[in-house]
Amino acid sequence: MSFNLPSMTLSGKEVLPLIEGGKGVAVSTGETTGAWAKAGGIGTFSAVNADDIDAQGNIIRTVYKGKSRKARFEELVAQGIAGGIKQAQIAHEVAAGNGRIHMNVLWEMGGAERILKGVLDEARNIIHGVTCGAGMPFKLAPLAAHYHVHYYPIISSARAFRALWLRSYKKHPEWLGGVVYEDPWLAGGHNGLSNSEDPEKPQAPYPRIVELRQTMNKFGLNDVPIIMAGGVWFLREWSDWLNNAAVGPIVFQYGTRPLLTQESPISDIWKQRILNLKPGDIKLNKFSPTGFYSSAIYNSFLHELYERSDREIAFMDHVSGDHDTGFVFGVRNKEVFVTKHDAQRAEGWVQDGFTKALPTPDSTLIFVSQDKAQEIRKDQLDCMGCLSQCAFSNWAANELGTTGKKADPRSFCIQKTLQAVAHDPEPGHNLMFAGHAAYRFGEDPFYKKGFIPTVKELVDRIATGE
Predict the structure, then answer these.
(1) Are 20 and 8 in contact (CB under 8 A)?
(2) Domain ranges of the chain
(3) CATH (residue range 8-285+438-463)
């Protein structure tokens, strides 16, 4: 090996310090996870609505029969448990005793704790670690300790880890396998930008990692590795992080690069799209119904959301200041008051075919076509509770089954689009998550002439520093 990448003990076994990051709905599967582990690293399957597989190897797509959101939510949880168990079993078989197998869960997904418990009840002996982010998973440590598996919280700042440690993790330090620092400006999917951080002004990861290490060392966690996630491509670019006392034990996680492997389940169209990305083709946006920023490929799906947000005006229920022009909308002909300028803009949008004005929770109206309005309404009614709380449908996993706020038509049904992009042969009109370094596929000579490696070839290549 021309690049000095020392192995490390993680989740109870000496492995390459290379992790396949778990990716959303049915994209990080048992096949990819097992292959990464077999290559000597740590594979991570996604337990976010993971696919169940029948005896013939066919994916069992969930058909929701419940008449209410809560009934459909129960179906979603049951399917999530069955799918998670099946993907763990596949990963175990493919890995053939090599590497380690981790399971990724989003704490803000619907039924997260129940699904995590349900999968580990059946598969604890073949799952070696649990990674968890998208929120503040205080219950992760005691739950992992109960099942004797290592836990890996995903955070984006030292402050977040400090809160988790003091409230919960300090009670179960022996099962803390590592801390995943997911760079909020570079990583794909949902990102942990705080309200005090500017999405347009990215901060370098090194000082943030050093701050995290200093925080961990204060708690006696000097030997617990940090996993760098987001923006990692050539390891030679990170060589000064190795054997660096200020960084400490360091592991590297890859989320985007495993998309382009032979084992990856995404469609050939998606694979060709990422082979031809250019700088700037990945957009950090805040359309997700989770309330988090997310990083995705700019395509027709994101384009429509950006355009939808451009057709937005504020209104008042009564005349106030320059909001003195009446505007009537909806089947009940509700009158609100907007500015004269916004009334003129709205008239132009209506003439262009965006005839439906939809209210948002922020006392604004957005203008969409009749067909889009019907699609939005249907998606909201079909909600199955895939998130703990959803801005788009106003679902919440509580006794009332609602956030208590109006549903927000500026967002979208994330379950619908992620199921479609994972399973449909034509994914281009759906949400395509990717990290901000994805444009480097087109610049990396490894992928010359459209070469798509196996997972083993990719891991071997990464380990050389290239």
Answers:
(1) no
(2) 8-285+438-463, 300-423
(3) 3.20.20.70
